[in-house]
Amino acid sequence: MTTSAYGRLPIPRLTPELLGLVQTGEVFSLGVDFQEGMLTPGAAMKSYSIAPHLRHGDPATIEPSTAAAEVIRMSIHVGTHIDALCHIAERQNAAGEVDSAGEPHLYAGEGVTVAASECVTSAGQTHLSIEQMPPILMRGVMLDVAAYKGVDTLPPAYPVGADDIRGAMEKQGSEIGDDTAVLIRTGSNRLLQAGDPVYRDAQTGLNLEAAQFLVAQGMTLVGADNMAVEAMPPMDHSVHRYLLVNSGITHVENLNLDELAAAGCYEFLLIIAPLKLTGATGSWVNPLAIA
């Protein structure tokens, strides 16, 4: 049983309160399909690529059975995935202040960071890497900001602000509360499916004010149907730094929230099981929302 904390994530426990969120038992898959050549955050990230490794009929030692298998190559931060807290660092000076000339630092507890250089070996990250993240069982709330604004998809690079969050909450009758996962729908999933580079280059998402407001409401996990949760440009990752480095709150990115929106499902039991990828900065996931 997992008993240690990972950032602000609650220790996993299926409580009567969480079970009470299940009303119809309908299960929604929030992951996107991984496709050959799908969009990535940039050239440094390798897209999904699949190649047969063993084909039915190839020589094997399991006659009269045959087997097929494949090799998949892609970066961790492609498709639907969750960020480990070691994914993003913030350059800080000796006083712990943001300083572009400072050394990269990682979250190490409330008000505490650790030098990223002390947390990596040739085998990967050693501090808060993804294999240390527990399974996630949380109350989830989906905020359909696109519907609140009366559009199918928010405009490119639109910064979702605190007023947008308040408006969506009021329209839906949603409340956040402690230890809630908040999933933001911008309507951008269709751009990913179409391979539209706008999805990568002009991302609609949270601004810093909205992230701060959600944390004040009790949010301890955030996700969105865009590539980075936050709006980009600018590329300074201010929301990532505020949440991951300074708050211990991680992200789920490239979600598919369209079925939840079509069903008008705004509250649910959220289940996410990261893969135990030792030393990695994240994990591919297929989150489940149970209504």
Features:
alpha+beta; about 290 residues; 3-stranded antiparallel beta sheet; globular; single chain
Strand-helix topology:
Blueprint: H1 16-19, E1 27-29, E2 49-54, E3 69-73, E4 81-83, E5 90-92, E6 103-109, E7 112-115, E8 120-121, E9 124-125, E10 136-144, H2 145-148, E11 159-160, H3 162-172, E12 180-185, H4 189-194, H5 198-201, E13 205-206, H6 208-217, E14 219-224, H7 238-247, E15 251-253, H8 258-262, E16 267-272, E17 282-284, E18 288-290
Largest sheet: 9 strands, mixed
**Looking at CATH, which topology would you report?**
Glucose Oxidase, domain 1
* Structural category: alpha+beta
Task: Assign an overall shape.
Answer: globular
Based on CA atoms alone, the radius of gyration comes out at 20 Å
Number of helices: 8
Q: Strand sequence of the main sheet, in spatial order?
A: 1-18-16-10-12-14-15-4-17
Going by CATH, the homologous superfamily would be: Putative cyclase
Percentage of residues in strands: 25-35%
**CATH architectural type:** 3-Layer(bba) Sandwich
Share of helical residues:
10-25%
- The first-level CATH class is given as Alpha Beta
How widely separated are the two ends?
A: 26 Å
How many domains make up the coordinates?
A: 1
